[in-house]
Design goal:
Elements lengths: L19 E6 L3 E7 L5 E8 L8 H18 L7 E6 L3 E2 L4 E2 L10 E2 H8 L5 E5 H12 L8 E6 L3 E7 L2 E3 L29 H5 L1 H10 L11 H9 L3 H25 L3 E5 L7 H14 L3 H4 L2 E4 L6 H11 L1 H4 L5
Parallel strand pairs: 1-4, 4-8, 9-12, 12-13
Antiparallel strand pairs: 1-2, 2-3, 5-6, 6-7, 9-10, 10-11
Length: about 325
């Protein structure tokens, strides 16, 4: 078991506990922050994830390295307690050789090793980006003070992380809580995993956009996402509203299954699609109530994630600050 809270050691010459450099790597953006032990973000920046045809693994790494250097400098270049990182999968875990589906430049890229080389002597911890969101929401967000939480991200994909008994559950390969591949409609649409009717196939942003286009939604451009669809739903576009109801129903069914299996206190939902607000959460709650019949399951609260775009960064920092709860690996 990793030692608890190594960040509580004072920074050299300082007397204050050292912060963590936190990283969030996704297909559309690279984000970084310097995070204090209480979870406060003291410096933050983000850049678009380069994905051009000529981009290679080292080019992407240089972009990330430049971002990390800038954010660290913006914070005043403090001594660091460690580096925490969330990255899209799949990845080998905990070694974190990453092959994100939406970052073709990285296939088997040794992300944790490269970060260790860049920050020698510091703990470097990498987990799935959705797991980091769940950790952030449990540590400092919507699940704070609760022992059993499922954190969900509904965006380009659908992912999640699972906290039971106040501790992160990793599973055999680090993928516990990956609710996106719970089957909610066995005869439903094909999923990129090879199955049919997965929650991700129905509720992820690109799937919803494709469904809405097929139903006659005509947005102002071709390169649109679930965020634009959610915006149109808030403005009352009937097809966009129907798309949110379709996603909400699937999410509610999946949560009902998860609550029966895991006896949860709270489910926190974030990601771009969740920006539809009540237009998504009302059908989620409706479907959940229709399928969760055990009394213990019906006590589960379903709430919006509280930390916004910094949830994954705060969760990544907690891999260092609260290692006793969230890092179940001997470094």
């Amino acid at each position: 078991m990793a030692a608890a809270d190594p960040a509580e050691a004072a920074a050299a010459g300082g007397g204050r506990a050292a912060p963590v450099l936190a990283v969030d790597i996704g297909g559309t953006k690279l984000a970084a922050a310097v995070v204090e032990p209480g979870g406060r973000v003291v410096a933050y920046d983000r850049v678009a994830t380069p994905n051009g045809e000529g981009l290679d693994a080292e080019g992407l790494w240089r972009t990330l390295q430049g971002l990390l250097d800038k954010v660290h400098a913006d914070a005043g270049s403090p001594a660091l307690a460690g580096v925490g990182c969330g990255c899209g999968g799949p990845m080998t875990w905990p070694a974190a050789e990453v092959s994100p589906l939406n970052i073709p430049a990285w296939r088997g890229f040794p992300l944790r090793e490269r970060l260790r080389d860049r920050y020698p002597g510091l703990p470097v911890r990498v987990h799935n980006d959705a797991v980091c969101v769940a950790i952030g929401e449990h540590w400092r967000g919507a699940g704070r003070g609760r022992s059993n939480l499922l954190g969900m991200v509904v965006s380009t994909g659908v992912g999640g992380g699972l906290i039971l008994g106040g501790r992160l559950v990793d599973g055999a390969s680090g993928n516990a809580g990956h609710i996106g591949h719970v089957v909610v409609e066995p005869s439903g649409p094909p999923c990129e995993c090879g199955g049919h009717g997965c929650l991700e196939a129905i509720a992820r942003g690109p799937g919803l956009v494709a469904w809405a286009r097929g139903e006659g939604w005509r947005p102002g451009g071709q390169d649109v996402t679930g965020v634009e669809l959610a915006s149109d739903a808030r403005r009352g576009h009937p097809v966009a509203v129907a798309a949110m109801r379709r996603a909400g129903h699937a999410i509610g069914v999946a949560i009902a299954s998860a609550t029966h299996l895991c006896d949860l206190d709270v489910v926190a939902i974030g990601g771009g699609v969740s920006q539809a607000g009540a237009l998504l959460f009302d059908p989620v709650e409706e479907a959940f109530r229709a399928h969760a019949w055990m009394a213990f399951a019906r006590k589960t609260q379903i709430v919006p994630a509280a930390l916004g775009q910094t949830a994954g960064l705060i969760g990544a920092a907690a891999l260092v600050f609260a290692a006793d709860r969230y890092w179940n690996v001997r470094d």
